[in-house]
Amino acid sequence: MNADFVLLGGRIATMDAAGTECSALAALHGRIVALGTDDAMRQHIGPGTTVLQAEGRRVLPGIVDSHAHPDAYAIRLRAWTLVSPDRVRTRDELLATIRRRCAELPPGRWAAFYRLNERQSGGYPTLDELDAASGGRPLFILRTDGHLGLANRAAFAACGIDATTPDPPFGRFDKLDGKLTGLVRETAAHIFLNAVHGQDSEADIAEGMELVQDQCLAAGITSVANSLCPAKAIRAYQRMRREGRWRMRMGIIASGRDEPLIPHLIGAGIRSGFGDEWVRLVGVEWCPDCSTSGRTAAYWEPYVGTPIPGEPVPNTGMLLYEKEDLTRRATAAHEAGLQVMIEGVGDRGIDFALDVMEAALAAHPVADHRMRVEHCCYVTPPILDRLRRGGFVDSSATGFMDELGEAYAANRGQDAMRWMWPHRSLIDAGVPAPGHSDFAVCRVSPWTAIAAMVNRRTTTGADLDAREAVTPREALRAYTWLGAWAQREEDEKGSLEPGKLADLVVLDRDVLEGDPSAIAGTQVVATVVGGMIRHRM
């Protein structure tokens, strides 16, 4: 029988349990039917077969990004303005970008900006500077972590907020000498996000997802899980599936912020795994913990370094749920057959997440539960042991390592880097720890994060403590097989084996056996999804 796709001349690392390597593979109807030598695979070539010549390059399974925000990124690519440090390096450049964008927009339209990193872009602008640059139109800037933002006076007025407005539960309007500074934290930032996103439609998400898919495929990502996915995005993805517009695979992690969504899933009897190989429900998620780079994540010990004007001193961060309430929600979802995921960033936040998940398991014991602590950054030895004993997944925000590592060191101290994203210790303890980008918090490409896992330095040179370095193969396993396993999809993806989906990438360099310092610059020559070439450099 002829294959419909054959790859020849590769250095294929299948990432299977045996570490098998070969030069060629064949696929039929989107799945791998054979692996072996070039000569053997040529026997599968017929008149209709697509043949991809890898020309001696390294070939890997497609990257599985097990926690990102493609729905939000889709909207931002369409309608927001990017102000990451590669675009704006100083406060003057930021203010000039604001002036330019505000002049372009129609009257009355909000101006929205994303991925501000004040540490690398000259600090936070003042309220007066924001007002002068925006020309009186409502403005909101989302910090790169997605947990803090900046609003101008017109935005505060549009949302009915002034200096006398009480802080919302689990949020804060920063003030200095009784006056608003413009900085808003956690649920206070959600007020402005809701105002900006209020007009988003399913069609807007679907249109933006075409751009997101382009970026993912160019980075070698063939499968992504949408963290905190709202109902509006779920409807958009189903529309795209019906219309044949998917070029990659989407896992849905239903959002606990979309208040009726998870109870509706429970009531409808929908369990994790519902869907198909293109769009599938992975589980459900709540976000009680916050941002280390933004100095809001919950730690047992106070933050170090220079406080942001208006932040509490001493500052140990904040949590966004009451434990009894979240335990009730998580237990109901777990008992209904939904995989539970709870965000924990600082050690206090991780302990909180584990308290909730342990209570859910005590109420309804399940051996292979695969409950996940999302981000799970500061894994101290007691937390590591707790993860191991409970069989929990450390869903590790490795994307933070390169882009936010400098801020983590500044806000928690260099000594704390010993237990930030400690993948060497996690692997040695047998704790499963897939990696993820959390885009649009960080960049889409996984390669700088994989490099940071191996080299334990950011691309700017910040020291992340080399004692927790892992091998390139271990880092790639976190982005392939473990990413699939954490979604209960290890029988479908994560390694290149007969019967599995023909999702793979061809790279411009050997990330397994080449120079580890070169991993960050990796480019993807080709990306194949289901035996179809979806990207070529």
Describe this structure in words.
With 537 residues, the protein is of the alpha/beta class. It has a domain of 126 residues: Roll (Diaminopimelate Epimerase, Chain A, domain 1), CATH 3.10.310.70. 32% of the residues lie in helices and 22% in strands. The chain contains 17 helices and 23 strands. The strands form 4 sheets. It has a 7-stranded parallel beta sheet with strand order 8-15-16-17-18-19-20. A 6-stranded mixed beta sheet has the order 3-2-7-21-22-23, covered by helices on one side. It has a 6-stranded mixed beta sheet with strand order 9-10-11-12-14-13, sandwiched between helices. Helix 2 packs across helix 7 and helix 10 crosses helix 11.
Helix-strand category? alpha/beta
How many beta strands in the DSSP annotation?
Answer: 23
Strand order of the largest sheet: 8-15-16-17-18-19-20
Broad shape: globular
Which CATH first-tier class of the domain at 72-197 would you pick? Alpha Beta
Give the name of the CATH architecture of the domain at 72-197.
Roll
CATH topology of the domain at 72-197: Diaminopimelate Epimerase, Chain A, domain 1
Sheet with most strands: 7 strands, parallel
| Helix percent band | 25-40%
Distance from N terminus to C terminus (CA atoms, Å) equals 30 Å
Radius of gyration: 23 Å
Mean pLDDT: 96
State the oligomer: single chain
Beta-strand percentage? 15-25%
